[in-house]
Each structure stands twice: as C-alpha cells, then as structure tokens.
Design a protein that fits this description.
The protein is an alpha+beta fold. It has 13 helices and 15 strands.
C-alpha cells in the first residue's frame, strides 16, 4: 500500500522513538549514535539516548563505554557504533597516504602504546615531543594529537575511554588484510542497511547524500558506492509520493496503523534521527530548522543550540536550554508565534522539562 506523506511522518517518528530499553539494545536498534562535543545543556549523544534508554543520565555513555562492546569512529558521521558494525569498515585505507617518515612515527607510537596499554595524548607528546601542526580548522594543535587521530582513523588504535572529554588510546587488534571486492560489496550492503534503518524513511536525495558521507567511513571503497546504491534501491521498499521517491526497510509498512506517535512533548538534539535530515524536516513540517552553533550570534534566528520541539506528530517550535545556579533555564520559540493554547500541551511540556532536569542531575 502506498503511504501518504502524513503516514510517512508518523512512521518516521514512531519507529525511531521506540520504547526505552537498555543502553546497548538502544544503540543496536539505532545502528550508531552521532556524537558532538557541544554541551547545551548536554552532548548530542546523551540527548539522543535519553529518549531511548530507560533511566538514562547525562554522561552515562562516556562513563560506561570502557566496558561496552562499542567503538568510537567515523561512519557517515562521527559517533558510537556496536563493534560488529565497526568491523565492517576495517581495515580502512585513508585517502591521504602517509610519508615514510610519518609512518615510522606511527609505528614508534604504536610500540609506545603497546608497552603501556593505554595512553593520554599528553603522554605521547611528552615522550616524543612531536611539536605543533596546523589542524583542519586552521588553528594550531599538537602534532602528537593529529598523529593519534590519524592512527585511530586507520584502525591502528581505538578509543579506550575518555578523561575529561579527551580521548585515551589503546591498540586496536584486528585483521589488517585487505578484503577482496566481493566481501567489500557485502560489507557495503550491510553498511547501507544500517543507514536506512537509522534514518528511514528517506527521500532519494537524502539517501544519496548519506551514501556520499560514506566516504568518511570507507574511503577505500569509493568506487563501489554507486553500485551498492543501485543494489540497495532494489532491496528496500520504495514509493513515489508527491513527486519524491522514498525508501525504507522492506519488512516495514509505513501505512500500518501501528505507527502512532504518543502525546509526549520531546526536546530533540539537532542530530536526532527524527530531525537530522533537514530536507525531510521541511517536507514533513513545512518550515526550515537550522543548526546555528557556528553562525555569528547576530545572524541567528533560532539560537545557539536550538532543540526542535516535537509534540505528538508535529515539530511546532524550538527551545534553548541552559543551566544556571543549579537550575534549568529555558527559552522557547514557536513556528506559529505562540505556544498551543492547550492544557494537554502545557502538561506535557512541564513533564518534559522535569525529565530533562532529572537527566541533567538537577532533580525536580
């Protein structure tokens, strides 16, 4: 049955805002969780997981990470993946080929880490005194940090844990043998399935955009992505609605009555799968949401870290939250200019702010 756009919207919300479960089960259902270092009022990964993990608290993922079967790495963006998903991308071959001198440095650092088990970047810098380099933001950073980042990206190292937000590195044990093309195709198919299950339903243009982002996760298979996309389009369910081709997992039916968003108000991170696709966002809700953290303050329309405000099956506005003096502060904006004049909305919003306070460790 061809779904309507309204049904697609309900499906998009209900399938990803599933009943809260354990941390590992939630990450497994999502496939991966995008990370971002900005804390406003918490990091993106925590704001994503609080809706999907029973009793989740800010910082819990970082605290529990060392004992979980997870990895930090690039996929279509940077974040946290189950190890089984992470293994599909390695051994990774970076587009930038290191010079013999750089490779020699990397092997020396690897031996240093092997002797110690896990190291902080400052330990590597103190031992090797690699000096300074220009990072990709155009600023100056320690060459040791850049080298460790490169080693991590190439699969030589893994993130063992974080200390005050800084990555602590350990050796990554894995097969360094380059896979043949048949296996590469199988892995690409599996990776694309993870993408569609995370962001479904996807308009065709957004699907193509995400396949392009796979350059970060598997640069060694860049020449295979176009064929992988063709296979995926044959494997997934699809329909044309109002001139747009949409895709979703073939075993799911967006037209089913089972997809019913609840009556809750939810404040979502800008990277939540409900709102991540800005193209889909405008098709579903008829207005343009923008992430403005890197926009000059004078040019911001929504705010530094505006959280989309979802009520039932509509994103009706946004909120900017902060913590001051141990209290949660909030500022709201609404697409229609004012909050709904509905007692059910007011009650649901109060409940969401209460949940946010508990999540942040502020109490009621």
């Amino acid at each position: 049955m061809t779904p309507t756009l309204d049904q697609l919207r309900r499906y998009a919300i209900a399938r990803t805002l599933f009943k809260p479960t354990t941390l590992m089960q939630a990450i497994g259902k999502l496939g991966f969780v995008q990370a971002d270092p900005i804390r406003a009022p918490a990091r993106a990964q925590d704001l994503t997981l609080r809706h999907r993990v029973t009793g989740y608290r800010a910082g819990e993922l970082e605290r529990r990470y060392p004992k979980l079967a997870l990895e930090e790495d690039f996929f279509v963006n940077y974040g946290f993946l189950p190890r089984a998903h992470h293994a599909l991308m390695h051994p990774r071959e970076a587009r930038l080929v290191w010079t013999p001198a750089r490779l020699k440095q990397a092997h020396a650092v690897r031996e240093f880490i092997a002797e110690r088990g896990a190291v902080h970047p400052k330990e590597v810098d103190a031992h090797f005194a690699h000096g300074k380099t220009t990072n990709w933001f155009g600023g100056s950073s320690k060459a040791s940090t850049e080298l460790l980042d490169g080693m991590h990206y190439r699969g030589m190292l893994r993130i063992a844990r974080r200390e005050s937000g800084t990555r602590v590195y350990a050796l990554r044990e894995g097969d360094a043998t380059r896979v043949d093309e048949a296996i590469a195709q199988e892995r690409l198919d599996a990776l694309l399935d993870i993408v569609i299950r995370k962001y479904a339903p996807l308009p065709a243009a957004s699907l193509g955009q995400l396949v392009g982002y796979l350059r970060s996760g598997v640069p060694q298979w860049q020449g295979l992505r176009a064929e992988a996309l063709k296979r995926a389009r044959q494997r997934w369910a699809t329909a044309r609605i109002d001139g747009v081709d949409w895709y979703w997992p073939s075993e799911e039916s967006p037209a089913s009555a089972r997809w019913k968003p609840d009556d809750a108000v939810r404040l979502l991170t800008p990277f939540d799968p409900v709102v991540w696709d800005r193209r889909r966002f405008e098709q579903f809700w008829g207005w343009a949401y923008r992430f403005e953290a890197y926009t000059p303050a004078a040019k911001r329309k929504l705010g530094y870290y505006a959280l989309p405000l979802l009520w039932r099956e509509r994103v009706i506005g946004w909120a900017n939250l902060s913590v001051s003096g141990g209290e949660l502060r909030s500022q709201f904006g609404y697409v229609d200019g004012a909050a709904p004049r509905d007692a059910a909305f007011r009650s649901a919003l109060e409940a969401e702010l209460e949940r946010m306070g508990v999540f942040l460790g502020l109490g009621s």
